[in-house]
Amino acid sequence: MPIRIPEQLPAQNVLLGENIFTMESNRAANQDIRPLKVGILNLMPNKIETEVQLLRLLSNTPLQIDVDFIRIDSQAPKNTPQSHMDAFYHDFSQVADKKYDGLIVTGAPLALLKYEDVKYWDTMTTILEWAQRHVNSTLYLCWAAHAAMYHFYNFTRTLRKEKFSGVFEHKVNDPHNELLRGFDPVFYAPHSRYGHIDTANYNSVDGLHVVAESEEVGAYIVASEDKRMVFVTGHPEYDADTLGDEYFRDVKAGQTPSIPKNYFTDNDPTKPPIVRWRSHGSLFFTNWLNYYVYQTTPYDLNQLAEKSQPKR
Question: Alphabetically, which GO biological process terms does the record hold (predicted)?
């Protein structure tokens, strides 16, 4: 799929080096097609790394996509140059009047904070409500998935003493759900989180379905019947080294983290990781774009209907 991204975005060279098709704006403008409008609310501190991970996964369909990177506040990020933010990111206020076919809200390193203690929580809830009116289908990842469940359904996550960290086996609960089309009955996905919401809580909400889960770490993919909201509690976008980088970062900081499960060869941190989640991660994003976004979104985004409010 040609992703239309801003010229000079650092991710472009990385993706081209991986033989992934990207398209600059001038070339895309000459194609007689309406591209999908996808916003990415990037809450991760290392913006550039997350950009590459997500753009890589958005690259595997014949659809053309226009991507807007959105920032939630103006505070300078810890691990990303301010010049990068100024060049490639929109303040939410700059896109608040726009409508999008799809929106991705990333995770955030806020595991141990109460939601109301998050500095941008008020803005986050504004965006959650805005998405109900302005976005055809929203994909919430990890922390964002739990935050949305809290805001819309009043489910408070449990904070575990030991982090779910590793690559875990999952099973397909609903093989007929289009998000899982082409999935093997059993597949693997990375998790890196302290927060947890019991599967029974998801299942108690009318109109939500746990379509994939793990015996070890619980619900993984939860989707609404109307396809307007998808909650993913793990990280299908992670690079091969991401879990390892997190582990070694914590060790270097003097912490004693558990070795990520089923990740390093022989569970030995001196050996390379075993990568076995990328194919399903790519397929998941492709299915979301096709069946939950492209097949359901109106050609004229001004005709996008407001989603009925979730039942709290």
Answer: L-methionine biosynthetic process from homoserine via O-succinyl-L-homoserine and cystathionine
Provide the CB-side half-sphere exposure for 175 (13 A, CA). Answer: 7
The answer to whether residues 193 and 111 touch, using CB atoms and an 8 Å cutoff, is yes
What residues form DSSP beta bridges with 144?
none
279 is in an annotated binding site: no
Segments making up each domain of the chain, as ranges: 3-158+175-181+194-238+278-303
Domain 3-158+175-181+194-238+278-303: CATH superfamily, name plus number? Class I glutamine amidotransferase (GATase) domain (3.40.50.880)
Is 192 part of any known ligand binding site?
A: yes
Look up the pTM and report it.
Answer: 0.88
> Exposure of 130 by Cβ count < 10 A (0-12 exposed, 13-18 middle, 19+ buried)?
middle
Judge whether 155 and 264 are in contact, CB under 8 Å: no
pLDDT tens by residue, the chain, 312 residues: 455 667 777 777 776 776 555 555 554 444 446 889 999 999 998 999 999 999 999 987 778 899 999 999 888 777 899 999 999 999 999 999 999 999 999 999 887 899 999 999 999 999 999 999 999 999 999 999 999 999 999 999 999 989 999 999 999 999 999 999 999 999 999 999 999 999 999 999 999 999 999 999 999 999 999 999 999 999 999 999 999 999 999 999 999 999 999 999 999 999 999 999 999 999 999 999 999 999 899 988 988 887 765 655
Cβ contact 103:138 at 8 Å: yes
Catalytic positions: 142, 235, 237
Is 27 known as a binding-site position? Answer: no
